C-alpha cells in the first residue's frame, strides 16, 4: 500500500478517533489508491502507548494479490496456513493467490465478528441500507457498490469482545444525509456514540461526522462527503512526513 496522507495531533480526538486516549497521536492513511475510490486503512498511533489488548471483533482484511505473497517470501515474512499474513500487533491479512487487479481495488473485504447474524443484517442492511451481495449460514457480505471493497460479518456464536484495540468502519455520505441518518437511528432506538460534530485537522479541511454503534458495538462513522473530499486529497509528501516523525519518535 502507499502512504496517502499523514497527520499529527497534539491532543486526543473529540470523537475518539484515536481511541480512549487524551495524548498526542497521529494518523496515517494507507491504501492502493486515492481515498475517493479505494478502501483505505487508517493507522492511528498513540505516542507513549506500547501495546493494545486485542479482542475477537476484527477477523481480518482480504486482499487479492499473489504479488503480496511473493514479497512476503522474498522478505521472509511468515506466511501462515491459508495464505494469512499477520501484521505487527496481531492483525490478520488474508491473501488470495491471484494477480493483483489493476481495474479495481485489490482489497476485497473487511471481516468483523458478530454474535447474531440476523440482528446484524437487520441493522446493516435494514437500517444503514447496505446491499447484501452474498450470504451463508454464518456470514453475510455487504456493501454500497458492486466494484468496491465489502464488509463481511461472521457469526462467531458468542459474545463479541472489543477489548482495547478496536477501530471503526467509516463511510462518506452527502452532508445533507447525516441528519437523516441520525434521525433514523434515533427512531429505531439504536446507539449514537457521538452526535453530529465537526472535527478539525491542522492546516486542512474541517469535516462533520456522526459515530454509531451496531448491535455488537462495532463503531461506524459517517463523514460528510464534501469536507472529506477536500481533506482526503493525496499528499505527495506524505511518505517523507511520516518517515520524519518516525525518526523523531524512535520508539
From TrEMBL:
This is VOC domain-containing protein. Keywords: Repeat. Pfam families: GLOD4_C. InterPro entries: GLOD4, GLOD4_C, Glyas_Bleomycin-R_OHBP_Dase, VOC_core. Transmembrane segments: none annotated. Belongs to the glyoxalase I family. It comes from the Eukaryota.
Amino acid at each position: 500500500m502507499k502512504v496517502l496522507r499523514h497527520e499529527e495531533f497534539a491532543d486526543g480526538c473529540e470523537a475518539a478517533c484515536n481511541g480512549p486516549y487524551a495524548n498526542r497521536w497521529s494518523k496515517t492513511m494507507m491504501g492502493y489508491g486515492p481515498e475517493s475510490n479505494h478502501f483505505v486503512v487508517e493507522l492511528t498511533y498513540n505516542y507513549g502507548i506500547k501495546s493494545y489488548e486485542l479482542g475477537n471483533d476484527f477477523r481480518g482484511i482480504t486482499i487479492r494479490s499473489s504479488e503480496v505473497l511473493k514479497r512476503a517470501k522474498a522478505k521472509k515474512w511468515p506466511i501462515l496456513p491459508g495464505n494469512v499474513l499477520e501484521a505487527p500487533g496481531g492483525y490478520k491479512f488474508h491473501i488470495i493467490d491471484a494477480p493483483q487487479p489493476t481495474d479495481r481495488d485489490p482489497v476485497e473485504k473487511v471481516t468483523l465478528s458478530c454474535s447474531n447474524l440476523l440482528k446484524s443484517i437487520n441493522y446493516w442492511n435494514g437500517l444503514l441500507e447496505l446491499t447484501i451481495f452474498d450470504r451463508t449460514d454464518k456470514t453475510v457480505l455487504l456493501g454500497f457498490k458492486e466494484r468496491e471493497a465489502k464488509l463481511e460479518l461472521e457469526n462467531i456464536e458468542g459474545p463479541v469482545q472489543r477489548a482495547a484495540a478496536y477501530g471503526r468502519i467509516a463511510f462518506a455520505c452527502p452532508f445533507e444525509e447525516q441528519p437523516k441518518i441520525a434521525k433514523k437511528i434515533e427512531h429505531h432506538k439504536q446507539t449514537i456514540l457521538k452526535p453530529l460534530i465537526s472535527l478539525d485537522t491542522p492546516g486542512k479541511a474541517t469535516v462533520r461526522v456522526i459515530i454509531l454503534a451496531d448491535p455488537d458495538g462495532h463503531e461506524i462513522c459517517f463523514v460528510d462527503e464534501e469536507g472529506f473530499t477536500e481533506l482526503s486529497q493525496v499528499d505527495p509528501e506524505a511518505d517523507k512526513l511520516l518517515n520524519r516523525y518516525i525518526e523523531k519518535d524512535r520508539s
